[in-house]
Design brief:
By secondary structure, this protein is mainly beta. The chain has a single domain, classed as Elongation Factor Tu (Ef-tu), domain 3 (Beta Barrel), CATH 2.40.30. Helix content is 10%, strand content 34%. It contains five helices and 16 strands. The strands form four sheets. A six-stranded antiparallel β-barrel has the order 2-3-14-13-10-15. Strands 4, 5, 6, 7 and 9 form a five-stranded antiparallel sheet that branches. Strands 1-8 form a two-stranded antiparallel ribbon. The longest helix has 11 residues.
Length: 319
């Protein structure tokens, strides 16, 4: 039997159902503030920076691969409250800004904020309901996308007071992140269509004279149990899966006035030029250009925060 090399950590290998990735866990922060947001992957480039890690090259200039993310316009249109009596923390009350709610297609009524404030002791959490407007991006995405954002605070009252300040206002990336922060990025990987066992799981090729075929399994398993186990590699769909990259370092944050510093000549491949606020991340992330992704403040990072010293950002053509 050919030995598989694909990880069983991600099983079953199924396609993502929605373009908006899901975030199931958020960091618990006592300081008031938003804990995440959304972005679009523009492409990659390379930078030159001073190495501030505990490594043999510490203090010297090194080259690093970097990913450029474009941040769409983000607005908060409502608040969601979670009650104590629900086992799986289902929402028990919601309130919306009337004008923005219609913009995202919500026509049902909501509870009044003043009434919910008097019932704050009934709730265990409060989150922000937000949407992103990507209509001014270069690739013509006109549909608004709704999502939920968790916020930091010591209790529900603090979280509620923070969200109220931003209802109806545009959220800037500087309100969420700062240079040197570590974030977790959740995205959908590249879809690669139907793939055989060689490409999908990395099994060894057969000898030509063994079975008359090369790129297939030698045997599907033992006699007993008398069935094909789920661990046996099979051909099937590859890619387009939810994946989360942990501890990605924010190297640079810029506004729409600073896009000339990162826009490559001729634009990013399959994307174009960046027009809005942007983030430069250290390393790569899953997915192709134009892929929608969500990020949150890192839940596992223990590295001290240091503002990176960047000496050069390549804007050479990637054509």
């Amino acid at each position: 039997m050919s030995m598989r090399k694909g990880s069983m950590e991600y099983w079953p290998h199924r396609r993502a159902k929605k373009q908006m990735p899901r975030v199931r866990t958020w960091k618990s922060v006592a300081e008031q503030g938003l804990l995440g947001g959304v972005a679009f992957k523009a492409g990659m480039t390379h930078i030159m920076m001073i190495d501030d890690r505990e490594s043999p090259s510490k203090g010297t200039e090194i080259a690093r691969a970097a990913t450029i993310l474009e941040i769409p316009k983000i607005f908060i249109y409502g608040i969601r409250f979670y009650g104590k009596k629900y086992l799986y923390r289902q929402p028990s009350a919601e309130t919306y800004d009337a004008n923005l709610a219609k913009r995202v297609g919500i026509n049902k009524g909501s509870e009044k904020i003043n009434e919910l404030k008097t019932r704050s002791s009934e709730f265990i959490d409060a989150t922000a309901l937000a949407f992103s407007d990507a209509s001014n991006l270069g690739f013509g995405n006109k549909k608004v996308m709704r999502f939920e954002l968790h916020v930091g605070g010591k209790d529900v009252a603090e979280k509620l007071s923070f969200i109220e300040k931003f209802i109806g206002k545009e959220i800037k990336i500087s309100d969420i992140l700062s240079e040197g922060d570590y974030i977790d990025v959740t995205s959908i990987s590249k879809g690669k269509g139907w793939a055989g066992v060689i490409k999908r799981f990395g099994v060894a090729r057969n000898y030509r004279k063994a079975t008359g075929k090369v790129r297939h399994l030698g045997v599907l398993g033992p006699w007993h149990p008398a069935k094909v186990m789920f661990t046996v590699p099979h051909s099937g769909h590859m890619g387009y899966n939810y994946r989360t990259e942990l501890n990605k370092r924010v190297l640079k944050i810029g506004s729409e006035k600073d896009v000339s510093q990162i826009n490559v000549k001729g634009g990013f491949l399959n994307y174009g030029i960046v027009k809005n606020d942007f983030v430069v991340l250290d390393g790569s992330i899953p997915g192709p250009a134009r892929r929608l992704l969500r990020f949150r403040k890192s839940i596992r990072s223990s590295a001290p925060k240091k503002v990176p010293q960047i000496n050069y950002i390549s804007i050479a053509s990637k054509q």
